[in-house]
Write a structure and sequence with these properties.
With 454 residues, the protein is of the alpha+beta class. It has 3 domains: 102 residues; 100 residues; 239 residues, Alpha-Beta Complex (Aminoglycoside 3'-phosphotransferase, Chain: A, domain 2). α6 packs antiparallel against α7. Strands 1, 2, 3, 4, 5 and 10 form a 6-stranded antiparallel β-sheet that branches. Strands 6-11-12-9-8-7 form a 6-stranded antiparallel β-sheet. A 3-stranded antiparallel β-sheet has the order 13-16-17. The protein starts with a helix and ends with a helix. The protein is globular and about 70 Å long. It is 42% helix and 22% strand. The chain is built from 12 helices and 17 strands. A hairpin with a 4-residue loop joins β2 and β3. It binds adenosine-5'-diphosphate (ADP) and ligand LMANGFYV.
Length: 454
């Protein structure tokens, strides 16, 4: 094979692989792999098999957009039956001859290399950084998480979890930098940062405390709603699975995280007029994707316009995409995870200080989603039962929103209420686009929120 043909073959194999990968954000779009960089070897260059090489793959879509994806590959000379499900391709590698390439995140032997590299704080083409104060278990076996994720997470025994970022934007990754600051400040509401991997100005992976026994806030909320729906004659506060005390603890956790972020990152103000302009821009763009939103535009714009007179709004570093699925309940209280911000926003925007109300709005929307997601999963024809469930769903959402908000900030001032309502609508607009693109059967959940709010 000539060099060109060999490169074409690698690009073709990677394109097929990306198309199958659950974390790949460009599914369904026409694309080419236009560049493949080998960023570096994980572990000693002369290590025995597997040879683990981090690749950075540039994809170019038919509309000209480009994106970078990280693909760590484990190379073997012979087929590895245990990794049949993770094969990427077969080609010739410099110094190795013919190799089989596998997605390294599925390979325990390859992931052991990562852990060893943290032990040595290897400083080669790839830099492995460690935070002080944690005695990392360098022998723990790695297990890939199986959930629907936009990145790939590997748990190491009971100690640590490594999140390998897939879509890469050059520059700071706020998941790492926010966790670093909160860990150094001793925040009790996050999983501590243990380390990270970088290459030049690229942040490639984050190692943090594994909250092994924690329960996902979304799952706990759904169980609470199911308890309520199972008891036709009881109110939310009367059923065993009442969530309000947890909602209040979540409000306190968010308040304390926001306070710390205000101390540790730059703060400032943003003009209400600019905030409203951004919200209206997102609304009009969303209507193009979700035409059903058109009927609510006038009402939503009226709510946004009420923000125009609020002058300068305090802004700071925030979570950016907070919802119940980003909260974990441990025996020591609630932890917030995933400080990357909304996946669809460009990095430059995600790094800008923003109003903390955006996080409050995210949780508010989640309290609305949970009961409606449960109702959605219980097909029903009887209009009385449907109406009764809708009533109880609203009661659950109202109760938990109230508990969360009063723990977060006490009684809301009128101006804060105006601002929060606008942020909640802005989030619902975002959700309509998210659902239309990712889970069209759930689009009715955010859509149904509009008539209740405007
Ligand atoms: N430190 C942790 N310990 C245990 N589970 C975690 C930890 N961080 C995240 N998770 C869980 O891993 C899954 C994905 O985490 P997340 O950070 O949201 O990844 P992604 O950016 O890929 O969506 C979620 O189910 C989350 O609850
Ligand atoms: O967790 P991600 O950072 O990938 O966030 C995206 O996906 C979320 C869904 O997994 C989505 O959240 C929406 O659905 C949740 C229920 O599954 C609900 O609790 C949230 O309130 C709702 O926004 C999130 O918006 C999206 O960015």
């Amino acid at each position: 094979m000539s060099a060109d043909t060999a490169d074409d073959h690698v690009e073709h194999s990677l394109r097929e692989f990306l198309g199958r990968a659950r974390w790949f954000g460009g599914k369904g779009r026409e694309l080419e792999v236009t560049d493949v960089q080998r960023l570096g070897v994980v572990g000693p260059p002369d290590a025995t098999e597997p040879r683990v090489v981090v690749h950075l793959v540039e994809v170019t879509y038919s509309d000209g957009d480009t994106e970078l994806y990280q693909v760590p590959l484990a190379f073997y000379a012979e087929p590895q039956d245990r990794l049949d499900h993770a094969v990427v391709g077969q080609w010739t590698e410099d110094g190795m001859g013919q190799v089989l390439a596998y997605d390294a995140t599925h390979d325990r032997a390859a992931m052991a290399r990562y852990l060893e590299a943290f032990g040595e704080e290897a400083d080669g083409e790839l830099t492995f950084r460690r935070m002080q104060g944690h005695d990392l278990d360098l022998t723990a076996p790695g297990t890939l998480f199986s959930g629907e994720q936009s990145n790939s997470s590997i748990a190491f025994g009971e100690d640590a979890i490594l999140k390998v970022f897939r879509k890469i934007t050059p520059g700071e990754n706020p998941d790492i930098t926010t966790h670093k600051v909160l860990t150094e400040a001793g925040s009790t509401h996050i999983a501590n940062l243990y380390g990270w991997v970088e290459s030049g100005d690229l942040h490639l992976a984050m190692l943090q405390q594994f909250l092994r026994t924690a329960s996902d806030g979304w799952d706990i909320a759904l169980a609470s709603v199911r308890d309520l729906f199972a008891e036709a004659d009881l109110h939310a506060e009367e059923v065993g699975g009442d969530f309000a005390a947890e909602a209040a603890r979540l409000g306190t956790a968010l308040k304390e995280v926001h306070e710390q972020l205000r101390i540790s990152f730059p703060t400032g103000t943003a003009s209400a007029v600019d905030i409203v302009e951004g919200m209206k821009g997102r609304l009009h763009a969303a209507v193009e994707i979700v035409p059903d939103l058109q009927q609510y535009v006038e009402g939503v714009v009226a709510v946004f316009d009420a923000v125009d007179d609020l002058g300068e709004i305090p802004v700071q570093r925030i979570h950016g995409d907070l919802h119940l699925g980003q909260t974990l309940r441990t025996v020591l209280g609630w932890k917030l995870v995933d400080f990357e911000g909304e996946p669809a926003k460009p990095l430059s925007e995600r790094l800008l200080p923003d109003a903390p109300w955006r996080d409050v709005a995210g949780m508010t929307r989640s309290f609305d989603y949970a009961p409606h997601a449960v109702a959605e999963s219980m097909p029903e024809d009887d209009p009385d039962v449907i109406a009764q469930r809708a009533h109880r769903a609203d009661e659950w959402a109202r109760r938990n929103r109230k508990a969360f908000l009063s723990a977060y900030c006490g009684e809301l001032a009128e101006t804060d209420r105006t601002l929060l309502t606008a942020y909640v609508l802005d989030k619902a607009v975002y959700e309509c686009v998210y659902e239309a693109r990712n889970r069209p059967t759930w689009l009715p959940i955010p859509l149904a929120a509009f008539p209740r709010m405007i």
